[in-house]
Amino acid sequence: MYNTTLLMDNVSRGNDSMCAKNDAFKYPLYSTIFSIVFVIGLITNVVAIYIFTCSLKLRNETTTYMMNLVVSDLLFVFTLPLRVFYFINQNWPFGGLLCKVSVSLFYTNMYGSILFLTCISVDRFLAIVHPFRSRAIRTKRNAKIVCVAVWMLVLSGSLPTGFLLNSTTNDSTGNATFCFENFSSKQWKSHLSKMVIFIETVGFLIPLILNVCCSIMVLQTLRRPQTVSRGGEMNKKKILRMIVVHLFIFCFCFIPYNVNLVFYSLVRTKTLNGCFVESVVRTIYPVALCIAVSNCCFDPIVYYFTSETIQNSIKRPSQMGRSYDVKFSEALQSETHSSLQWSLRSLKAKVFHNESSV
Question: Mean of the pLDDT values across residues 236-258?
């Protein structure tokens, strides 16, 4: 329920007659924000595609997740010109099929982004907290399997919502066709309310818990004395920065919309009544949606500029050949893994040295 520009627009017809609408600001807001998101999102994600396919020769499970994240963002970005046209003209002339596709891609992008960001967070947790035991799990093959599972899960929620419901309606005069904002109270009660429960649980609440828990455990691991070694503090700061940026993007983009969606669903199913509640939810929704849409601009920034390995692949492509023996995942880890390996090698060398001198 990422999109619909507006699952908000039709708050039950009975309520509409009693409660004055106060969300007329949404159309200029959407047209402005979505235009900006289209330009920035298209440029950054196309650059990301180029980096992954042409410049970045060293690939592993982390880049697999990021590549799928980029694809999810681009699918959404390509629908934005149609939406901007609709928001400006308040008329959808492109037919029901494109409306259904746009609705589905909205949902696909939001919850696909959430799940792929969660995959990256879990992968970083395994690499830092369990660097040795996770080697058998953290493979490119398993990452591809996970990505296929994520796409199947996301599409199982987005396609029914987009294609099984009527996505376009005509206004009372017949001069305009609406898209995204015509779900009836009956549709909400019979289908959409159940879908909200599913996507909020599987697509938001569980990933939120995983992101927070993984980040906390990574930070606890970085605080251990044995992780301190030559260069360790610097690497800790880099990982700390990555975690903070990751959580900020996740919470900033997705929490406002998903929390508001719960209340909106309660309003549409008449579980919550009252003009004040409706007014608050209706006012917050457009702003929360615009913030959520911005995730496709933040995703590339987070992972392409906080990853030192990717930065080096851009700045010093001629030197990449000398670093192929260092796994990309180790660059995204803290110094924990390398420090442990260095300590083990040092200990082993000392033991053998003592044995040879006996």
Answer: 85
**Secondary structure letter of residue 227 according to DSSP:** G
Q: What is the DSSP string of 160-199?
A: HHHHSS--EEE-TTSS-EEES----HHHIIIIIHHHHHHH
Residue 262 has pLDDT above 80, yes or no: yes
Which residues, in sequence order, are CB contacts of 280 under 8 Å at separation 6+?
none
Q: If we measure between CA atoms, which residue out of 130, 137, 121, 110 comes closest to residue 65?
A: 121
E strands within 35-86?
none
> Which tokens belong to 341?
């390996």
Tokens 């949606």 belong to: 289
Please compute the mean of the pLDDT values over residues 234-244 and round it to a whole number: 75
Q: For 290-317, what is each residue's pLDDT tens digit?
A: 999 999 998 877 666 555 544 554 555 4
103 in Cβ contact with 180 (< 8 Å): yes
Helix, strand or coil, per DSSP, at residue 24: coil
* Mean pLDDT for the chain overall: 75
Q: Which pLDDT does position 51 carry in this prediction?
A: 80
**What residue spans of 294-334 are helical by DSSP H?**
295-305, 308-315, 328-332
Q: Is the dihedral of CA 249, 253, 256, 258 positive or negative?
A: negative
Distances (CA, A) of 340 to 74, 219, 220, 233: 39, 17, 16, 14
| 8 A C-beta contact, residue 10 and residue 165 | no
Domains delineated in the chain: 24-353 (1.20.1070.10)
Q: How many CB atoms lie within 10 A of CB 139?
A: 14
Output the six-digit token pair for 171: 């206004």
User: Does the structure show a pLDDT above 90 at 288?
Assistant: yes
Distance CA 57, CA 60 (A): 10
